[in-house]
Amino acid sequence: MDQKLKIIINGAGLGGLAAAACLLMDGHDVEVYEQAPELGEVGAGIQISANAMHVLNHIGVGQILGQTAVRPEAYTFCMGDTGEIIQSFELSGAHERAHGAPYYHVHRSDIHDLLANRVLELKPGCIHVGHRLVSYEEKDDRVIARFANDARASGDLLIGSDGLKSAVREQMLGKQNPIYTGDVAWRITVPTREVEGLMPRIEQRLWMMPGGHAVTYFLRRGELINFVGLIEKERPAEESWTTKHSWDEMKADFKGWHPIIQGLIDHADKNACYLWALHIREPIEGWSTNRVTMLGDAVHATLPYLAQGAAMAFEDGAVLSRALKQAPALPEALDLYQRNRYERTARIVRESSANGKLFHHPSREAMLEAFRNRDMGKERSMWLFNYNPWEVELV
CB under 8 Å to 78, separation ≥6 — which residues? Predict the structure, then answer.
């Protein structure tokens, strides 16, 4: 499609900003609308594998990201109480050799800042905060977005990158409450200097216990340690990345875990313990109309047990930008986009859920048996990390 489009993106999270950068680089006129009063991300870590790095490299932020990111030496699976190693494989070095881009651990706010700055470099003033979408109207020749502050935006295409509680999705598909999984994620970061020597190796470690698991790794050149503790729990009052809960509650939830886990919790900022209720949606095949589509959590919210939520949103934006070039008209482009993203994103959702069961086996013996004949590094390399959204054939 030769036409350059006026594109409205609802949501200035990681996926929306990455898509905006891809589309601006293709010559489209993009405006991004965000409901929050200011741009920003919470203080937590994120894993960026090669499939996501291909997108970040394409839009020109990969090299800068590498200046603050951490390259983990290994990925180690161990028991959550004793630390007994079940399986370990080389990570970043082997990952880059196999897939053409490194595996990084980064701070969410660092990557969010880079993406926002890149978008504003490509088109100054195109990100608008304080705009909560309330509805859209789709016409033959345009789509009109209406916001709670009475502002309107008109364009050729509306993209909903507005997360789990997507207003775009609700209008397009009707109200469909996401499903609470029974798992919650505690999130803290701890300055490395405060726990010197507690974690001597720059690695990602996954700690498993019946009914829960935890992930630890380094951020910001090794200056911070990121802890995510995932346990089965009654549903909290609110589903939100930014909900704070009691440090005492977190401490009690990890009673009996390994001294490294205890040390990180003991040194956490007691006013910055975040609890996130984990929700999921069943995969769907259709998420586009003639002038409206979605990406990321708005359409395929997944558990973090493959660390691919942001990566899927990045891939979505890249494939969408390619589909707009390849198809003869906008409706065909949106159909081509969703058709080529459904199977992969559905697999991510399902395999992430399966990992939750794997990491939470009811007994130590069952957990050891489940890993006995599995090579986790090889499994993921064969289908997950070897995907390059700029090279995969769109059919």
Answer: 84, 85, 86, 205, 206, 207, 208
Q: What is the pTM of this model?
A: 0.95
Given its phi and psi angles, is residue 4 left (phi above 0), alpha (psi -120 to 50 degrees) or beta?
beta
How far is it, in rounded angstroms, from Cα 207 to Cα 186? 14
CA–CA distance, 45 with 220 (Å, rounded to integer) = 9
Grouping H, G, I as helix, E, B as strand and the rest as coil, residue 47 is: strand
Tell me the C-alpha distance between 38 and 29, whole Å.
22
Instruction: Compute the distance between CA of residue 326 and CA of residue 349 in angstroms, rounded to an integer.
Output: 27
Greatest extent of the chain over all pairs of C-alpha atoms, in Å: 63
What is the DSSP secondary-structure string of 286-350? ----SSEEE-THHHH---GGGS-HHHHHHHHHHHHHHHHHHSSSHHHHHHHHHHHHHHHHHHHHH
Any residues with CB less than 8 A from the CB of 177 and at least 6 apart, and which? none
Q: Is 262 exposed, middle or buried (0-12, 13-18, 19+ CB in 10 A)?
A: middle
What gap in Å lies between CA 245 and CA 187, rounded to an integer?
10
C-beta of residue 6 within 8 angstroms of C-beta of residue 324: no
If we measure between CA atoms, which residue out of 39, 61, 84 comes closest to residue 371? Answer: 84
Q: How far is CA 196 from CA 64, 69, 85, 199, 260, in A?
A: 27, 20, 22, 8, 11
In tens, the pLDDT along 198-212 reads 998 899 999 999 889
Q: Which of 233, 267, 225 is nearest to 249 (CA)?
A: 233
Q: Give per-residue pLDDT as tens, 70-124.
A: 999 999 999 999 999 999 999 989 999 999 999 999 999 999 999 999 999 999 9
Q: Which long-range contacts (CB under 8 A, 24 or more apart) does 360-369 make?
A: 360/208, 360/209, 360/210, 360/211, 360/212, 360/213, 360/232, 361/208, 361/210, 362/210, 362/211, 363/210, 364/79, 364/210, 367/79, 367/86, 367/208, 367/210, 368/86
Token pair belonging to 316: 């979505």
Q: In angstroms, rounded to a whole number, what is the distance separating the alpha carbons of residues 216 and 199?
A: 9
pLDDT at site 236: 66
